[in-house]
Design goal:
It is an enzyme of class 2 (transferase). By secondary structure, this protein is of the alpha/beta class. It has one domain: Aldolase class I (TIM Barrel, Alpha-Beta Barrel). It is about 40% helix and about 15% strand. It contains 13 helices and 14 strands. The protein has an eight-stranded parallel beta barrel, surrounded by six helices. A two-stranded antiparallel sheet has the order 3-4. Strands 6-7 form a two-stranded antiparallel sheet. A hairpin with a 2-residue loop joins β3 and β4. α3 crosses α5 and α11 packs parallel to α12. The chain is globular and about 65 Å long. The mean pLDDT is about 95. The structure holds tryptophan and manganese (II) ion. Manganese (II) ion (MN) binds next to loops.
């Protein structure tokens, strides 16, 4: 790794998972356009998120990172955004109330478009097509035209991110996230279910707590923290040209920030220590995540900590483990020990989705709700054993009533998957499964005596 960093220094390193853009001039034109556009987030916000994540690293807060596997150019409406936010807020309220610590809310949203693929090509019938890489690159339709990477999509992704972020800011600061409205976040299909009833009970308790505070003389109307939330944005920093185009120098500190989102992460397939993704992200001031799978060694963990957080800033680095339910305990413990003994302040988050994906009998990619819970349980046990803090969860969900993951309170079975299987990439938890998961996480944390 070279000593000097610049927004372009990654170009001297091998960059995995980049699309094969058919026309370099066309790509350059799109990136130049994005470079001229305003940043999507402000460096000061990214610094504030680092501070909040620092509290997570110290064991005094919990991270909830959630959203789509891949955002879609088609599933893009006020209702889609509102429903996603609603589920995140409901989960956050359950976790805040049950754990008794602040919950740092980070969406996989407003920029989570690009997908890494196991193979650059896909055989469809007798056609050999470029793989679908997310709507920021191409379309999933199985034709040569749809699959050819199109740089105009980079510009469209920027605009969709900007308007998604605008609505998120409006909802989170404009009254929708007000704690006085906990009841109104309940959707009908949730009220009529067991986890919906549990949620209603919890909402009732929060109401009572607010009344108690008012009775004690606290003016709950004028206390802005009760009316507003910070929901930060994040995505996998996969397309380095796009990320570079939104990387700006902060006028206050002179540091560089990737202003495409508050937090960026490196995927399991692009975390090579001598690769372009690590090189790019080591130089930006944002909080950074890195996925770690079962192949990651303790040595790797120490090296990635040194590469991405040499100054040991609490909250700068989140390691997101995605081990698989039956491997997590054994695979994670040596990694926790290594970071702990070296004194690295790490936010440890559990991605219970990606290590538990399989193909259903009907041929659809799916995950079972029970495996998702089992991985979180193993994650918490591993932390309990090593006396480290199980800092948070990283999940793929949607507010819509889809049938993509098996199990959960309405026992979605193999034969139901076809009913509403709408994801453009991996299967997501639906609204009910997500809320149920929040209650399960709270129970598991309490049972382990960590909350
Ligand atoms: N602002 C506080 C927080 O973010 C309390 C809060 C207000 C809240 N609205 C919320 C918490 C919605 C969770 C969900 O924690
Ligand atoms: Mn995914």
């Amino acid at each position: 790794m070279g000593k000097t960093w610049s927004p372009t220094s990654w170009q001297g390193f091998p960059a995995a998972q980049q699309p094969d853009w058919p026309d370099q001039a066309d790509l350059d034109r799109a990136l130049k356009q994005i470079t001229s556009y305003p940043p999507l987030v402000f460096a000061g916000e990214a610094r504030r998120l680092t501070t909040s994540l620092g509290h997570v690293a110290a064991g005094n807060a919990f991270l909830l990172q959630a959203g789509d596997c891949a955002e879609s150019f088609e599933e893009f409406s006020a209702v889609d955004i509102r429903e996603k936010l609603r589920v995140i807020l409901q989960m956050a309220v359950v976790l805040t109330y049950s754990l008794g610590v602040p919950v740092v809310k980070v969406g996989r949203i407003a920029g989570q478009f690009a997908k890494p693929r196991s193979s650059p090509f896909e055989q469809v019938g007798d056609l050999m097509l470029p793989s679908f890489r997310g709507h920021i690159v191409n379309d999933a339709t199985a034709t040569q035209a749809a699959r050819t990477p199109n740089p105009d999509r980079l510009v469209q992704a920027y605009h969709q991110s900007a308007s998604t972020l605008n609505l998120l800011r409006a909802f989170t600061k404009g009254g929708f996230a007000d704690l006085h409205r906990v009841h109104q976040w309940t959707q009908e299909f949730v009220t009529s279910s067991p986890e919906g009833e549990r949620y209603e009970q919890l909402a009732e308790e929060i109401d009572r707590a607010l009344r108690f505070m008012r009775a004690c003389g606290v003016n709950t109307e004028s206390t802005s923290t009760l009316h507003e939330v910070d929901v930060y944005t994040s995505h996998e920093a996969l397309l380095l040209g796009y990320e570079q185009a939104l990387t700006r120098q902060d006028s206050l500190t002179g540091s560089w920030y990737d202003c495409s989102a508050h937090m960026l992460w490196i995927g399991e397939r692009t975390r090579q220590l001598d690769g372009a993704h690590v090189e790019f992200l080591r130089g930006v001031g944002n909080p950074i995540g890195c996925k770690v799978g079962p192949e990651a060694s303790p040595e790797f963990v120490l090296e990635i900590c040194e590469a991405l957080n040499p100054n040991r800033i609490p909250g700068r680095l989140t390691l997101i483990s995605r081990m698989g339910a039956n491997k997590v305990e054994d695979s994670l413990r040596p990694l926790l020990r290594a970071a702990r003994d070296a004194g690295h302040p790490i936010v440890w988050a559990c991605d219970p989705m990606h290590g538990n994906t399989f193909t259903s009998q009907g041929g659809r990619k799916t995950r079972h709700f029970d495996d998702v819970c089992a991985e979180i349980a193993g994650f918490i046990r591993a932390h309990h054993a090593e006396q480290t803090w199980p800092g948070g969860i990283h999940v793929e969900l949607t507010g819509n009533n889809v049938t993509e993951c098996l199990g959960g309170a309405d026992e979605i079975l193999d034969e139901h998957l076809g009913d509403r299987y709408e994801t453009v990439c991996d299967p997501r938890l639906n609204g009910r499964q997500s809320l149920d998961l929040a209650f399960r996480v709270a129970e598991l944390m309490r049972a382990a005596g960590v909350a």
